[in-house]
Amino acid sequence: MASSNTSALSIPVFNGENYQVWAVKMKAYLRGLGLWQWVETKRQVQPLGNNPTLNQIRAQEEEEAKAPRALSYIHAAVLEPIFTRIMACETPKEAWDKLKEMYLGSDRTRQMQILNLKRQFEVLRMKDNEFIKEYVDRLMEIVNKIRLLGEDLTDQRVVEKVLVSLPERFESKVSSLEDSKDLTKISLAELVHAFQAQEQRRSMRQEESNEEAFLALQKRKASQGREKKQFGEKKDKEKNEAKEGKVVARRDILHVLTARNKVIQRIFVGEQGQQAQMAENQQQQEQLFIVTSHATSSCTETWLIDSGCTNHMTPELSCFKELDQSYKSKVKIGNGDLVDVKGKGVVAVETPTDDKTRMCWVFFMKQKSEVAGVFKNFKALVENQANSSIKVIRSDNGTEYTSDKFDRFCVEAGIVHQLTVTYSPQQNGVSERKNRTIMEMTRCLLFEKKMPKCFWAEAVNIVVYLLNRLPTKAVKNKTSFEAWYGVKPVVEHLKVFGSLCYTHVPDVKRDKLDYKAEMGIFLGYSSTSKGYRVFNLKTKKIMVSRDIKVDEAAVWNWEKNEIEVEDVDQLG
């Protein structure tokens, strides 16, 4: 009975593409017919014994017919051009292996296919205009192809991939899941359902706002229609008066607009220069949409937050750094009441984040693959200094940041890794501008003292050191160093990069008649000890010394290996 039901199903046909998918379907189809074992292994039918019964003879004939029947199903499941390649095969196993060899390839070929699919898996990112189900379908298509090739890819790894590749609009939901659930045990289906629920709520809010906008537009059109009708009636009246012999001066219309391009006043200017102002000075009221909550106790720190993030309101005068109390206005809030505005100013908001302080670190690596290890050390350093953990990082789409090792570390540490859109460096503008500033300052330092380019890393190091101790617009009246550490930086020890200097030779390393100092080039400040980094011109090595004398006016000639004397005429 099972065989008849299975044979009624349409046989999967292979057209030369997606062999792995067809192989899975065909395998299930043959299993339903009870023929797969004849394809999987080369079986031999046991011979009959002496004096067989009629049932034994029938069973023997049925077993002998299974191999030809399995071969016929394979023939029927492929198109004509493919059939010609397996028509010489005499057993179903031989035909199956032939197809597998032609379309799946050797072990080496499969490894290359797995590698390419893994690369697609790693670089895949959700698009901004894409739904979560569409993205997961694209992702699972790659995952299933990898699994069909025999590579194990766990559901947990797929969940991690989804979490680290979502766009910024899901960031709040990811943070909520991190706080409420164990992400190492959450299933992919549960994760998708959570994000779909968020998309549905957002879609409902958008539909409501669209309805409100449509109603407002219809109301505005109706108002404009009434205005045009009134204006047309007035023009007809003026024409009738002219026909009756009354003098009507030709007038131009001057519209007075607000910042939002709404007409609040019309002034008619006559030929003689007279002005007649119409009584259309309709006072326009700004509207403010707010989110409120009920509390059992009163609080003076209440803020009315504008939905456009342009104007906010507070009753506390002490919050303002600058306040213009001459500014007067009225604001209509959600319940229809009017709130008096008695001033407009600027408030100071402290945000304890690295993006706020503009504190910068620099690490030098031989290969980009070292990024994951360096970032792990950096995380331990800054979290210890700031006494808080890293929540979010943003980077470009470089392979060093999208590697499996880096993503796995971010997931394990609970860090949200945001990636900029391809060819959109402006999304990471703070870092991009910082990199440009560092490179421009590095170039200037090298050119100023005619330093060889081999010292570029030393120049970058001192540039970052100086930028952290220089004022920045991002931190008003503070340096990045002070904003990060809470103390003002010491600057008395600063020297000019690339200057000629003289390092003191300790007594234990010289005789009585030896030089007490050696010439070198000042390169910066040591990060591991309280000393200066100096390139020794004699030994050609970098050393750290506490006692140096710097000649900032001198320049070392690297071609002639001598001190360059400035031209006296040029100085005059």
UniProtKB/TrEMBL annotation:
- Location of region: Disordered: 218-244
Q: What is this protein called?
A: Retrovirus-related Pol polyprotein from transposon TNT 1-94
Q: Where is the Integrase catalytic domain?
A: 311-488
Highest taxon above the source species: Eukaryota
Q: Which organism is it from?
A: Vitis vinifera
- For this UniProt record, give its keywords in alphabetical order, as a comma-separated list: Hydrolase, Protease
Primary gene name = POLX_4238
Q: Where is the composition biased (Basic and acidic residues)?
A: 224-244
State whether keyword Hydrolase applies. yes
Q: Which GO terms describe its molecular function?
A: nucleic acid binding; peptidase activity
| This protein's record includes keyword Hydrolase | yes
Q: Which InterPro entries match?
A: Integrase_cat-core, PolX-like_BBD, Retrotran_Ty1/copia-like, RNaseH-like_sf, RNaseH_sf, SH3_retrovirus
GO BP annotations of the record are:
DNA integration; proteolysis
